[in-house]
TrEMBL record:
PANTHER family: GLUTATHIONE S-TRANSFERASE GSTA, GLUTATHIONE S-TRANSFERASE-RELATED. This is Glutathione S-transferase. Keywords: Membrane, Transferase, Transmembrane, Transmembrane helix. The lineage of its organism: Bacteria, Pseudomonadati, Pseudomonadota, Betaproteobacteria, Burkholderiales. Residues 1-80 form the GST N-terminal domain. GO terms for molecular function: transferase activity.
Length: 194
């Protein structure tokens, strides 16, 4: 498989998941100019123009982080329960992050006004509070095992720290735990972020 990614972007959740799941893959960096590091027009690979995109080896390309993460989990049998409430809670949390949290960072990444950033930071505090209550003292969001929700959460928490958004203690602890995982260390190193 080939993961098209942007260093430190939301694609990082898929990168962590691929490594954690042990799926053979390679990664291809994609620039803001929509060129891949190996010289291709990324718009021809994913006409939506954004990362992540996952080439399933036969030229079939999957997009949307939530779907790619679910595909990685279902293909590997790791990072997501195959049935039952734990599966739906993990998907629920991942959807919450991909829709309700991710977009709140837009004013920070796209040169929003101070007022827009302050408003977004307020909403982020509320959203992170919800996730923090769900996490509590558990090692991972859904329980004892890491799931795709933790991969996504890692990226959202990293962005929050980068943008100076204060995190509840449970979430800063979660971020610190994730940073120590071999899969996360490898991901950051491969993305040139260490
Ligand atoms: N709906 C997409 C959004 C992906 C997305 O926002 N990707 C960002 C990086 S975090 C990107 O590539 N932005 C570049 C652009 O939109 O031109 C998903 O959930 O995967």
């Amino acid at each position: 498989m080939i993961l098209y990614y942007a260093p430190g972007g939301c694609s990082q959740a898929c990168h962590i998941a691929l490594i954690e799941a042990g799926i053979p893959h390679r990664i291809v960096k994609t620039g803001r100019d929509r060129r891949t590091e190996d010289g291709h027009d990324f718009n021809l690979i994913n006409p939506k123009g954004y990362t992540p995109a996952l080439d399933l080896k036969d030229g079939t390309v999957l997009t949307e982080g939530l779907v790619i993460l679910t595909y990685i989990a279902d293909t590997s049998g790791k990072l997501l329960a195959s049935s039952g409430l734990a599966r739906w809670r993990a998907l629920e949390a991942t959807a919450f992050m991909s829709t309700e949290i991710h977009r709140q960072f837009l004013p920070f990444f796209r040169g929003g006004t101070t007022q827009e950033k302050e408003q977004a930071a307020q909403t982020l505090l509320m959203r992170f509070d919800t996730i923090s209550n769900q996490l509590g003292d558990k090692p991972f969001l859904i329980g004892e095992q890491m799931t795709i929700a933790d991969c996504y959460l890692f990226v959202m928490l990293s962005w929050a720290v980068m943008m100076g958004v204060a995190l509840p203690r449970h979430l800063s602890d979660h971020l610190a735990r994730m940073k120590d995982l071999p899969s996360v260390i490898k991901t950051l190193s491969e993305e040139g972020l260490t």
